[in-house]
Amino acid sequence: MSRIKSIDSFNTFQTLLKPREDVRIKLFMCAGTSCLSSEADIMIQMFQKLCDEHELSHQCAIIKTGCFGFCGQGPILRIEPGDYHYVQVKVEDVDEIFNEHILNKRIVKRLLYRNPHSDEISIDASSMDFYQKQHRIALKNCGHIDPEIIDEYIANGGYTALSKALSEMTPFEVITCINESGLRGRGGGGFSTGVKWEVAYLEETNEKFIICNADEGDPGAFMDRAICEGDPHSIIEGMIIAAYATKATRGFIYIRAEYALATHRLQIAIEQARAYGLLGTNILGTLMSFDISIKIGAGAFVCGEETALIRSIEGGRGEPKNKPPYPSVSGYHRKPTVVNNVETLANVPNIIVKGSAWFRDIGTSTSPGTKVFALAGHVRNIGLVEVPMGTTFREIVYDIGGGHPKDRKIKAIQIGGPSGGVITEKYFDTPIDYESLKAIGAMMGSGGMIVMDEDSDMVEVAKFYLDFTQDESCGQCTPCRIGTKRMLEILERLTSMQGSIEDLESLRSLGEIIKWSSLCGLGQTAPNPVLSTLTHFREEYEAYAYRTKKKAYSIDPAKCIGCTKCARSCPVTCIEGKVKQLHVIDESLCIACGACFSACPVNAIIRP
Amino acid sequence: MSIIKRMVTCYINDIPVTVPKGTTILQAAAKVGMHIPTLCHLDLHDIGVVNRQALCRICVVEDEKRELLVPSCAQEVTSGQRILTDSKKAIMARRINLELLLSNHPQDCLMCVKNLDCELQSLAHEMNIRQIHYPGEKMNHPIDNSSFSIFKNPNKCIMCRRCITMCDEMQTVGVLSAVNRGFDSTVSTAFHLDLQDTSCTYCGQCASVCPTAALAEIDSTPHVWREINNPNKHVSVQVAPAVRVAIAEAFGQDPGTISTGKVVMALRRLGFDSVFDTNFAADLTVIEEAHEFVERVKAGGRLPMLTSCCPAWVNFIEQQFPNLVDVPSTCKSPQQMMGAITKTYYAKEANLDIHNLVTVAIMPCVAKKAEASKEGFNDEGFMDVDYVLTTRELARMIKEAAIDFNQLHESDFDHPLGESTGAAVIFGTTGGVMEAAIRTAYEMLTGKPLKEVRFESLRGFDGIRSASIDMGGKTLNVAIAHELGNARKLLNAIENDEVHYDLLEIMACPGGCIGGGGQPYHHGNVNIIEQRRQAIYQLDQDAPLRKSHENPAIIQLYEKFLKQPGSDVAHKYLHTHYKPKPRI
Amino acid sequence: MNIQDVLDTSSLDSNKLLELDSFIDQCENPKHEQLIHVLHKAQHLFGYLPPNLQRHIALKLNCSSAQVNGVVTFYSFFNENKMGEFTISVCMGTACFVKGSDKVLDLVYKETGAEKDVMSEDGVFSVKDVRCIGACGLAPVLSVNEKVFGHVEAKNVKSIVDIYRKNHVKN
Ligand SMILES: Cc1cc2nc3c(=O)[nH]c(=O)nc-3n(C[C@H](O)[C@H](O)[C@H](O)COP(=O)(O)O)c2cc1C
Ligand code: SF4
Ligand code: SF4
Ligand code: SF4
Ligand code: SF4
Ligand code: SF4
Ligand code: SF4
Ligand code: SF4
Ligand code: SF4
Ligand code: FES
Ligand code: FES
Ligand code: FES
Question: What is the three-class DSSP state of A330?
């Protein structure tokens, strides 16, 4: 296909892109990072081979698609017609699915999702607890199109927004529409996207830039990766619209080096968009010119911060700059630069097509729309969930997430990654939006949501996050460079039973100064995990400070049946005992890995 | 109207202040007499260098409405903003941040070269720090004392990045960079190489702005004391022009105070056996250089000719422009000429055994330290100059010897190497070497006496200046640059054939040697350099003789020893050669 | 650090150096903005970024070696030291951490004999802790070169390491 020379021919082209009539069966196999690492790619090849052998290629399409979100149940295979979801599919299952489902039209029951509570089997997404409360906007194409084929995106309504903006709206109308939709940045800050664009729009210079922030550094969050892998064109379309609105001529996608697959898919998408004349000079025959290059990071969390990101694009150390001036006034090459998050941009085409009122109807009044969370930790259903703003923690963790895998008590939810804090049970019914979270001393962050059960050691969790930020600090400014180090030293002192009660006050005062006076968001939020656990779980800190904390596992002699399983599972072989006799843990050697705990069939292991 | 639009009114501690847009809180506060402590900030905008990165977070103040702390050095005031410089939050943040810096600092002030001249130390005093509440691990990076010029102790670095700003932006040498990340980050050379293995020019501009002792000069005072205390040694000393207009600052006097006679007296009291004037050698340099220039012009040799009396500049060209190493003049710098003449001519005249003759130079410069031991300056079987002390080091020795500098009587330089002209003293400032050379070259080329010795067009402070000088019908195109970044611009333009000059003068330091890396610290006040400059020109104006070739001692030197300019003897002792060096 | 080791590029494979040079020549201007891009390529070609390679890149991009070294030491992706044949990356992202990946990491160090930033003495393994490799659904996760292992339990570590050690012996 060659360049599309006008908006009219694009519209015609789109209407002609009917689904292939002859293809009766579509197999959507997840090809997200998680599923690929469970051999999804091999299964795709196997299905293709089977199709070829049975000469079904013309009526049966094998489509590798983006993450379904339900990665914990991956690899997932979705089959149309009928929206059948097969979960945890393995290489050994391929023949059976092919023979039964495709050839004999019989469902393979054992591979369908089984609700752990009700034991009911779900055939399609609408009957799966995981999907029921979700509302997919940013993720709408993930699992429904082949991200490497632009025609599928277009056929599914893609680039309609661009065509509409270019033909029916002035740049200012685009900005007004985004402004009225109330869209707020999904990268963590929640700043109004429309206002950001307007600032750049009002700057009068010859050059402006659009940057898509796909650095996604929050360890344990992967919603942006899923969008890049599963629906790269939605980001590109969002960027072109942003460029149109602000009169930018050049764009960058800054993506983490770890995201090889996402980078690959984005690269393909950019090339396809270029070939179609959706990028480059005279886009769709209009006067607009805009092109995008991909810039790959090199492993620095702080490069997610927009000014650091810009320095990194400029080839330097990713060290943030004091703001103001903000990038939308002075960014890349000191020119106005709009930096937007992946998810923010993926929302844009939907808003342009469906209008700001539609968007405002979803979510809450101050935080319209949806938010994607990466749900992980001690929860049954691990994966990506996109819910309307205003959904409560409880709904996400229990209704969507299915609760604790062993139905233990959930003690806290960590939100906002290393910048965020913990939510305790008391607040599980808080509707999630920017304001409500702020009111309870938490923050939205980029979407990491980690569930922690009653056995989690909150001091260790806080130390984990601080260790992360301390390690990722760029080292420029005093409070963050030295202050976080000192806080970490105090936490290490505490957890190795060398601390004292005064240390808790030091943690608080240091934490506050670091928040107040650090140069960038990393330092300004780094103490949050410590400060919030210190507030909500002070007794756990005190147990360390008074050195009453117990660390090693032990065995309940009344319960142990001497099955030897624990001893065999212990990586440091610190469990002794003969078959059918009581087992004993050498507490001085135990590294508290918990392996024995999971191994014991009779719950004889006692956690510290 | 437009003027009003460009002004903003804000409130500092409830006092309204109206300032132009773009003014920082720090500047606005200064206008109403509010002092805000700073550390990393350095504003040398008169010489085009500002370090405004807001990294130390010492200068934070409270933005009352937003309940936020903001760095006053970098944040520009906005209309209606209410700033509190002394809110509880601000004071506490400043304090804790300073404590954090100190918790990661070797607190050995008593033995530190910066003791009582240290911005970190003064701040600790000013902020009443009496205890470090958050002790912990300290950085432990290797100390570099490999070079002859610069001492680098990264463990005293507070990461203000002033040095990098100087080295990168002003000098465009790029020897230093922040390395590593987080707590491990520090300022270092590539691969932690010793400075002597890098392209460091030893200009010392990094050290001259470092707020702590992380970068400082290598201390040569113990060696000099040892020589002075050795009764068998005749210790001869020379004093560079820029020293006499700056050293008084170290004793609490105003910048620009001329103290030639006091310096000479102090040196005698310290025990130096003969006290000479580098100006003598500057006159000698002028003769040799003007001669070389006239010869090049006559023989159609390589032009432009570049001056070579600034060793940092020579290092720069050897490393950064290796294909241009044959264009600087082959003349040694005055320091080295003086050393060579002392050890040959003077040794003979005074009947001294050169094995017992020690030459010391007092310089505004740290690069001169490395120059003295550079290859090519000791290949006659002796070192031209054995030790170099900076202005700061001399001041320290004077204090150490309990000499009350301000009360000293004046004394004169010794003969014969103490005689000089006004042309020599202006070597201390940018444009001076050129002006001195032209005073002599004019008469050499035209054979006619020069009436007006003041060349206004060569004076000034602009980074690059050029002029066309009428040399009796023939026009000479000359250019002057100070700071190596400007030198680079000029050389690039020459390499690209964009400009054509006959003679260039280049000095590495802002303002030339008066702004040298070994001078008393200006602590960010560039006005001090300007005052030193005026003093230099005053000295020239007051000099009875103002052309180098009229210096009777020089005339005598040629008669007795060198024969004529450019002779074989002159070449042997007063000229050198340059070698391309790898760039790091 | 010996200065000759920095100046001398003869220890570098000349064909790879040529490939790197032509890669740099094709880079967009201004060249120094492509530093990170070039370093990725160089590390891909040579496996790590020794000082002489960094200086070579500095000269080609017309920036200072200090600047290049400042960038290399900033980003955790770049290695200044030689890497083992297999790099085991243990995910220390939150999802993995709460499932015990710190214990897994300790064991990987122990089993391989590698240390932080230093490969194992036999040259077989390098060990890195990385942040979320995007397979949180399989937490805890580790990867060996490109291959991802999900749901790694402490007791599996030894067998994974042993597989690769055997692979190495075979080669
Ligand atoms: C330490 C730090 C890390 C950040 N990481 C990310 C990131 O990975 N992705 C992102 O989109 N924004 C990140 N941000 C926020 C960005 O600075 C910026 O606000 C955002 O990209 C703006 O886009 P938005 O308005 O669409 O959210 C980070 C901020 C900080 C302070
Ligand atoms: S807060 Fe931390 S990451 Fe941000 S600039 Fe300061 S040191 Fe760097
Ligand atoms: S917790 Fe881990 S180390 Fe401790 S006894 Fe159990 S298996 Fe062994
Ligand atoms: S696994 Fe449980 S029952 Fe079996 S030996 Fe261990 S503690 Fe006893
Ligand atoms: S640098 Fe300053 S604060 Fe540090 S030891 Fe020296 S004098 Fe004291
Ligand atoms: S200031 Fe204090 S520590 Fe220093 S010398 Fe005096 S008494 Fe001793
Ligand atoms: S002495 Fe000059 S060249 Fe050397 S590091 Fe300092 S500023 Fe750079
Ligand atoms: S060496 Fe000195 S000037 Fe350079 S960053 Fe450190 S403290 Fe500042
Ligand atoms: S200008 Fe003067 S002080 Fe500066 S380096 Fe050159 S000779 Fe030394
Ligand atoms: S990667 Fe397959 S469902 Fe997420
Ligand atoms: S002086 Fe303002 S932050 Fe350092
Ligand atoms: S946290 Fe380990 S793969 Fe995401």
Answer: coil
